[in-house]
């Protein structure tokens, strides 16, 4: 057993279009052909892999994450469900709990990849605040998560390749859904029967004998894509600004970020272009991000510092939240051996790989070993934090 100041569980939270341990046969979101959860357990860590809605909003994903960890019947909240026309308590989403003893005396460490980092911060917001079911803020929700403040349930949040300030790819995602290419490849590898969009709150499910492509097309055509209760809004620069405004750094939580980059500056054009090591599937995205501007509602826009990217997310957006209307969260570069303080972000390092590589996809053995070393070293740091 590792020597540690704390031995709180480590919860791995997947990103956009991610999946759980059993949804893609032996191919893992966290590790690809390798299983990062198993590797961490072999090193003595108590680690769990969550499975939340792959295209759902951060609100819906955070609610699901809470009940997956704690156990119980998912409750999206009366007010939220009425606003977006959801089934408030879909019977299919009732969990035993990965860590049922979770509370302020038994907190957890959350590690989120991509949108999973945003989801962890939305869960922070929902835990910290009493959520009301009516617009007059007079009737509080009745669930354990939404109906009361639950302080000190999260010890740390670690983000990997997370669009804290949004991604300038978001408009492209909502209009063309380029990830379809990725899933055609995966579906060919593992078959079509494992993956589930987990959209029971929409009353949406795969029909018997329905092909995966038809199921995907029906999901893509659902009217929920036109609302703010969907991933495309949350990863936009405006949606991210909203999250950054309502969920600033908590002075009792430790924050860490890893960023990824796999583009280079083209001196002739002034734009960023993909490196040769980037996945072919992501290169068109990387070129678009490498030259794309995006605008906030107040008319301000991103600039050339946003061009560097990993094929999905602008690298500068991954360092930590900076666009909230109440000001940026404090962000510092991590220095080994320094005294860590809660309430600010520590940028651990930039890893020069594409967006999917950091979680073990399409890696050579030596590259995979390097990523596992980074991850296990970081988990040791998390366990070194004071109780």
Task: Break the fold down into its secondary structure elements and pairings.
Blueprint: E1 10-13, H1 36-42, E2 47-49, H2 58-70, E3 72-73, H3 78-84, E4 94-95, E5 108-113, H4 115-128, E6 154-160, H5 170-176, H6 179-190, H7 212-220, H8 231-234, H9 237-246, E7 254-260, E8 263-266, E9 271-274, H10 280-289, E10 331-333, E11 345-351, H11 365-384
Parallel strand pairs: 1-2, 1-5, 5-6, 6-7, 7-11, 10-11
Antiparallel strand pairs: 3-4, 8-9
Helix pairs in contact: 2-4
Overall description:
This protein has 387 residues and is α/β, with parallel strands linked by helices. It has a single domain (10-384), classed as Alpha/Beta hydrolase fold, catalytic domain (Rossmann fold). The protein has helices at 36-42, 58-70, 78-84, 115-128, 170-176, 179-190, 212-220, 231-234, 237-246, 280-289, 365-384; strands at 10-13, 47-49, 72-73, 94-95, 108-113, 154-160, 254-260, 263-266, 271-274, 331-333, 345-351. The strands form three sheets. Strands 2-1-5-6-7-11-10 form a seven-stranded parallel β-sheet, sandwiched between helices. Strands 3-4 form a two-stranded antiparallel sheet. It has a two-stranded antiparallel sheet with strand order 8-9.
Succession of helices and strands: EHEHEHEEHEHHHHHEEEHEEH
Low-confidence stretches are 175-179
Q: What is the CATH T-level topology?
A: Rossmann fold
Total strand segments: 11
On the 0 to 100 scale, the average pLDDT is 90
Shape-level CATH architecture: 3-Layer(aba) Sandwich
Count of all domains:
1
Q: Helix/strand/pairing class, anyone?
A: alpha/beta
Contiguous helical run count? 11
Strand content: 5-15%
The largest sheet, given as strand count, sense and whether it forms a barrel, is: 7 strands, parallel
- Helix fraction, binned, reads 25-40%
Q: Cα-atom Rg, whole angstroms?
A: 20 Å
The 3D shape can be described as globular
């Amino acid at each position: 057993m590792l020597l540690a100041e704390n031995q709180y569980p480590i919860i791995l939270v997947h990103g956009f279009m991610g999946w759980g341990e059993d949804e893609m046969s032996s191919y893992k979101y966290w590790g690809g052909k390798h299983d990062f959860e198993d590797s961490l357990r072999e090193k003595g860590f108590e680690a769990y892999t969550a499975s939340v809605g792959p295209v759902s909003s951060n609100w819906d994903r955070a609610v699901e994450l809470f009940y997956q960890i704690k156990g119980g019947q998912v409750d999206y909240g009366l007010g939220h469900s009425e606003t977006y026309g959801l089934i408030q308590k879909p019977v299919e989403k009732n969990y035993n709990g990965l860590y049922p003893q979770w509370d302020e005396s038994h907190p957890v460490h959350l590690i989120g990849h991509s949108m999973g980092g945003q989801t962890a911060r939305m869960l922070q917001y929902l835990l910290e605040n009493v959520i009301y079911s009516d617009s007059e803020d007079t009737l509080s929700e009745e669930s354990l998560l939404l109906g009361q403040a639950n302080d000190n349930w999260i010890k740390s949040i670690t983000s990997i390749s997370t669009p804290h300030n949004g991604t300038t790819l978001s408009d492209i995602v909502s209009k063309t859904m380029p990830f379809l290419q990725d899933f055609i490849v995966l579906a060919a590898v593992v078959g079509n029967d494992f993956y589930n969009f987990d959209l029971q709150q929409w009353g949406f499910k795969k029909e018997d004998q329905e092909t995966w492509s038809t199921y995907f097309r029906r999901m893509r055509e659902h009217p929920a894509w036109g609302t703010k209760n969907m991933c495309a809004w949350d990863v936009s620069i405006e949606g991210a600004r909203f999250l950054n405004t309502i969920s600033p750094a908590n002075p009792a939580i430790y924050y860490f970020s890893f960023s990824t980059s796999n583009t280079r500056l083209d001196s002739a054009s002034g734009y960023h272009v993909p490196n040769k090591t980037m996945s072919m599937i992501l290169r068109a995205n990387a070129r678009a991000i490498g030259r794309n501007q995006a605008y906030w509602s107040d008319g301000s826009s991103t600039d050339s510092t946003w061009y560097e990217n990993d094929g999905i997310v602008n690298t500068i957006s991954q360092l930590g939240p900076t666009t909230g209307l109440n000001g940026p969260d404090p962000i510092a570069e991590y220095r080994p051996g320094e005294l860590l303080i809660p309430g600010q972000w520590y940028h651990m390092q930039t890893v020069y790989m594409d967006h999917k590589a950091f979680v073990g996809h399409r890696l050579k053995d030596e590259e995979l070993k390097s990523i596992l070393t980074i991850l296990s070293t970081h988990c040791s740091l998390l366990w070194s934090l004071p109780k």
